[in-house]
């Protein structure tokens, strides 16, 4: 690929990430082209459809979350799950429109499963260290992330809570419930 074509492609993916993160599935390819400051024809030369562009953006987002989980694995066994969930909260707060369930089958299932496997390992390590209760399951971790997403969405749509980051308080409550010694 020519250098200018590669730069246009990267600019399109970056713009798409920002637009989809903000607007979710309601964003259009014209919105993306405008944000990337390219014409629609340039976008269509690089991506044949909205689905193809969404898949590229979501793969990048979930790979980033996998990298976050890998970094959390470098933390102590007792704190790795906390580090992971807090970082995921930050990512969701900044990019709520990219969360897998709202995109359905366009979400990269292999990466979603890898992320789930990594979060399960973080949970098991924390349980082995005695930091997290033995009855907390991987599904509880997944539901905690879904709950965060719900709180973040509520914050974004309710002007009374704008900028409060209630998701942090909610996550603290969830983690207290997970811990062996809240």
Strand and helix map with partners:
Layout: H1 3-23, H2 29-36, H3 40-46, H4 50-72, H5 80-94, H6 109-128, H7 138-157, H8 166-178
Helix pairs in contact: 1-2, 1-4, 4-5, 4-6, 5-7, 5-8, 7-8
Characterise this structure.
The chain is mainly alpha-helical and 182 residues long. The protein has 8 helices and no strands. It is elongated. The N and C termini lie far apart (54 Å).
Sheet with most strands: none
Give the number of helices: 8
Number of structural units classed as domains: 2
Q: What is the succession of H and E elements?
A: HHHHHHHH
Question: Gist?
Answer:
This protein is an all-alpha fold and 182 residues long.
Features:
mainly alpha; 8 helices; 2 domains; Arc Repressor Mutant, subunit A; 182 residues
